[in-house]
Amino acid sequence: MSTDQPDLKDRPARLTVGVVGAGRVGPALAASLQLAGHRPVAVSGVSDASRRRAEAMLPDVPLVPPAEVLQRADLVLLTVPDDALPGLVSGLAETGAVRPGQLLVHTSGRYGTAVLDPALRAGALPLALHPAMTFTGTPVDVQRLAGCSFGVTAPEELRLAAEALVIEMGGEPEWISEANRPLYHAALALGANHLVTLVAQSMELLRTAGVAAPDRMLGPLLGAALDNALRSGDAALTGPVARGDAGTVAAHVTELRKHAPQAVAGYLAMARATADRALAHGLLKPELAEDLLGVLADGSGGTNGTDGTDSTDGTEGNA
Question: By percentage, how much of the chain surpasses pLDDT 90?
Answer without folding.
Answer: 87
